[in-house]
Amino acid sequence: MEQELKLKKRGVSGVVVFFLIILFLAVGLVAGWYVGKENLITIGTDKEEKEEKTEKESTETKETEELKTGECQNCKEGNKYIFTENSNIGLTVEISSDMNSATIRANNTELGSAYGLNLSSLGDNQYITEVKVDGFNKKIMQVHIGGFGQAVGAENILYVLEDGTIEYTPVFSELKENWSKENLNKLFKTHKAIDKIDNVSYVTGATVTSGTTGHYTTVAVRKDGSFYDLGEMINR
């Protein structure tokens, strides 16, 4: 009888030990899965943070990239130029697929607010006035809306053509002279060449500083890296 009780106790002890082993293994697997999941989340987060940091650094580098004043074709002595973006005045320009024309879309409210004008709708759309511009003798490679100085009213629509020349349309004078239903077929249609410019690759905004003063301008960068200050050429 006593021997039988010992055998039963051993059996119970074995079952307990077996279940304890299973329990420990289960806890270990859950813990391992959780740690692995946390590591994956951490790795993913670190990767995203690194990519975001790299993109931010790249953007900051571009925004603060200084143009070499020594390579400027017409700058005043002592001026320093840094890439920047001109503010939006409510105009967008899209080059056609054949690159021979462009479509200008003017947000009547935003454009009027920028210039202090009450611009009524000229077309079927109550908010957007759309104009097609053609008459270029070369393909259009880039369109840029650039300003000069600190006052509103000096913005121009600038067309970089395939031969490296630039043609432009002053925005404010067009609004004053041709913003009417009668003159809609004339609006933004006139574009004239900037003299003594060649081999232009692209146009961009820039901040000009000289001593403690500064202002905005637009520069045309040539294929060799030199550039023109268009504010000195258009607003003379």
Characterization of this structure:
The chain is an alpha+beta fold and 236 residues long. It has two domains: 1-63; 66-234, no CATH class. The chain is 35% helix and 29% strand. It contains four helices and twelve strands; from the N terminus they run H-E-E-E-E-H-E-E-E-E-H-E-E-E-E-H. It has a five-stranded antiparallel sheet with strand order 1-2-10-11-12. The chain has a four-stranded antiparallel sheet with strand order 6-7-8-9. A hairpin with a 2-residue loop joins strand 10 and strand 11 (213-222). The protein is extended. The termini are far apart. Residues 3-9, 37-43 and 54-64 have low confidence and may be disordered.
Largest sheet: 5 strands, antiparallel
Give the N-terminus to C-terminus distance in angstroms.
Answer: 120 Å
How many alpha or pi helices? 4
Strand order of the largest sheet: 1-2-10-11-12
Uncertain regions spanning at least 5 consecutive residues:
3-9, 37-43, 54-64
Helix content: 25-40%
SSE succession: HEEEEHEEEEHEEEEH
- Secondary-structure content class: alpha+beta
Number of domains: 2
